[in-house]
Amino acid sequence: MMDPVEVTLLYQGKLQILPKVPVKSYEDFSVIYTPGVAQVVQEIVKDKEKSFQLTSRWNTVAIVTDGTRVLGLGNVGPEASLPVMEGKALLFKYLGGVDAFPLPISVKDPDSFINIVSALEPSFGGINLEDVESPKCFYILERLQERVNIPVWHDDQQGTAGAILAALINAMKLTGKGLDSKIVVFGAGAANIASVRLLRSYGFDPKRMIVIDREGVLHAERRDLDSMMFNNRWKYEVAVTTNGLNVTTVDDAFKDADILIAASMPGPNVIQKRWIRSMKEPVVFALANPIPEIYPQDAIDAGAKVVATGRSDFPNQVNNSLIFPGVFRGVLDSRSTKVDDEMVIAGAEALAEFARRKGISSNYIVPRMDEQEAYYELASAVAEKAVERGYARVKLAREDFRLMAKGRIEESRKRIRAVQSEG
Predict the structure, then answer these.
(1) 3-state SS assignment for residue 379
(2) Is pLDDT of 1 > 70?
(3) What is the pTM of this model?
């Protein structure tokens, strides 16, 4: 395998723009540009919605970051975040057939960030927020969802939470666990706070969830609760709505728990084997990268029945790349104005159902990223839910959305292969 720096030096980046419209003669410019393009402009002046039909906007997403929380590297700044955003754009295109534009911006103030992204709305069909530090990311997402009329998504929140739910649905089927499960949520960053919200929306009892941060168990009597209320109201809400068992120690949190969802600091040995042994035939998701909080074999040795990580070289990779390409394919195809938790749940259920049709086992609870058909199913489920929720401008049956997604993803891959075949 080539060194990543060598690869990017060789290609000088991961992306380029190629035209869709052929240019065969000098006369074509008068149609593509001036004077012919003026007719297209006038059509959009009469009806702004036609920008989705007469331009590429219908299939475009902005990947926006301030570079404050990039991978596990922290606050690297907008310039250094660009390789990650380019990679994300490549996944958007290859997995979802979506044209995504990396847009790191040099602004730290959340309201300035919101103003800049809001001003981009006329150019895009959706916004993907990426690698924005917590708790700022919660505020930015909420305000943008209220302010713009296109879907806004924060992948570190909704994408990760959706992948966790998809995997958890099938892990529970294998282990006979239900919505009354006792769940330990290890880590209180963007991914796990969003997961608590999504699992609650799905039907899990928040009083049976126990969230653990760097200081220990979140509970209603924590000494830092008042400062949390002012500095991170999203985490505060989790603290006061979960842990109905009134657990205050980490050992008691793990005792007789059914499920562990860890999205915290890289391991190994962040999660101790003795904690796993104290659980009840547990489902263990250790999602930190590049090293999970506990290695899968160690978790299995301690009694885990199903184990997932964030890595592709272990079974059961729970990664937001399973979610965001299909979600955006679905919202763009339905021309949805929003993406909400109900749509994420629909997508997660579609992924879980796809895996069940293939045959789930302790080593296969979610589709792999190379199972292309899974993205068609997810996209069509999200699009159908957008219609049901009243957000869709395009209203079709689920099968029609599935065929649309299949055609667009296959066409995208065909074009990529054609370029690759030319060297």
Answers:
(1) helix
(2) no
(3) 0.94
